[in-house]
Amino acid sequence: MKKMLLAALAAVLCLVSCEKAQTNKILGTWEAEKIYLNVEGFEMAVDIKEVSGGSISLTFKKDGTATMTERIEGESFSDTCDYSYSNDILTLSFEGESISIPTTITGDILTMKVTPEMMEDEDIQGNMKIVWTRR
Description:
It is a single chain. By secondary structure, the protein is of the alpha+beta class. It has one domain (about 1-135): Lipocalin, CATH 2.40.128. Helices cover about 25% and strands about 55% of the residues. The chain has three helices and nine strands; from the N terminus they run H-E-E-H-E-E-E-E-E-E-H-E. The chain has helices spanning about 1-25, 50, 115-120; strands at about 30-40, 40-45, 55-60, 65-70, 75-85, 90-95, 95-105, 110-115, 130-135. The protein has an eight-stranded antiparallel β-barrel with strand order 1-3-4-5-6-7-8-9. Strand 4 (about 65-70) and strand 5 (about 75-85) form a beta hairpin. The longest helix is centred in the N-terminal third of the chain and has 25 residues, at about 1-25.
């Protein structure tokens, strides 16, 4: 009985620590580098800095909030939302709605896979991949 209790406790601790470790992996500021997308059957890679002349960053904080900041042509725009990250799914919640995005982190590279249904954009026919680098 004692062994079963210890095994169950170990399993629970492992699950809790794994979830916390994954959440901690996403903390910090990430800068969008490239977007890979399919527009009307044409696949392309877009360099964010080159196309926008600015930058897009996403900062994840320990308090469960994330802030996206766009800096374009000397102007800066920010928006904040709530987030959670578990089992390679990033969920962003704002204005009563939420979106869940498959997201992987390898070292200092964060990759989001966005589907046309998430974007609600008729021009995007295939999946879109956004690659971010940790700053």
